[in-house]
Amino acid sequence: MCCQGAGRLGSGINDRGPCLVEVAVAVAIVFETHSITTDNEAGLATGWLDGRLSERGKVLAAELGQRRRHDGIAAVFASDLGRSVETVELAFGASSIPVHLDVRLREVDYGAWNGMPVSRLERERVRRISQPFPDGESYQQVVTRVAGFLEELARDRDRARVLLVGHTATRWALDHLLAGADLAEVVEAPFGWQEGWAYALPAGWRRPSPAIGSADP
After folding, report:
1. How large is the greatest C-alpha to C-alpha distance in the chain, in angstroms?
2. Cystine design at 180: which of 8, 9, 191, 196 (Cβ 3.0–4.6 Å)?
3. Is residue 162 within 8 Å of residue 30, measured between CB atoms?
4. What is the DSSP pairing of strand 25-33 with strand 197-202?
5. How many other β-carbons are positioned within 10 Å of the β-carbon of residue 38?
6. Tens of pLDDT along 26-73?
7. What domains are defined for the chain?
8. SS3 72
9. What is the pTM for the complete model shown?
10. CA dihedral sign of residues 25, 177, 181, 36
11. N-term to C-term CA, the chain
């Protein structure tokens, strides 16, 4: 018999230890970040500027395609910012996997500070959970738009395995919405790159109430 009261969605973990949890999964999500850019290498926070891949980034984008083309991916959904578009073109341009661009998967908008030094961003991030960057967005606003995307994904892609290609803030929103992570904690934590993150999007998933996901002005 399956034990009750599992903690995070799809985690199979609760206070009594691991167990098997019967979760009706609508969509299996694999998330990958866009590849390395010239701004990354220069220590700049690109935000809603397009950016472009560095030579090393182009190599890694090709490796992403090699890693995921035969991974059972039914479709790719990517941020429409230039560095993400370039990543998926290099990774999947020669494949038959459909690629869809979506503005809701963008990085947080740093507004007037798009392109600022990463050192400045690191000082500002924790202040911008609910307070938008000047002329830009807050991280809660990113959560709100990613939640809208996930609701549509649960409705339209039942039982599919899909790849999302986006940005650091996109992943933080997924951690918050699908893994129950505290938004402030993930925003404050150091970034650690890896070859993809997996999420289970339950059947019938609905965006959280504004009190949970968005205190936007």
Report:
1. 55
2. 8
3. yes
4. antiparallel
5. 16
6. 899 999 999 999 999 999 999 999 999 999 999 999 999 999 999 999
7. 26-213 (3.40.50.1240)
8. coil
9. 0.84
10. positive
11. 46
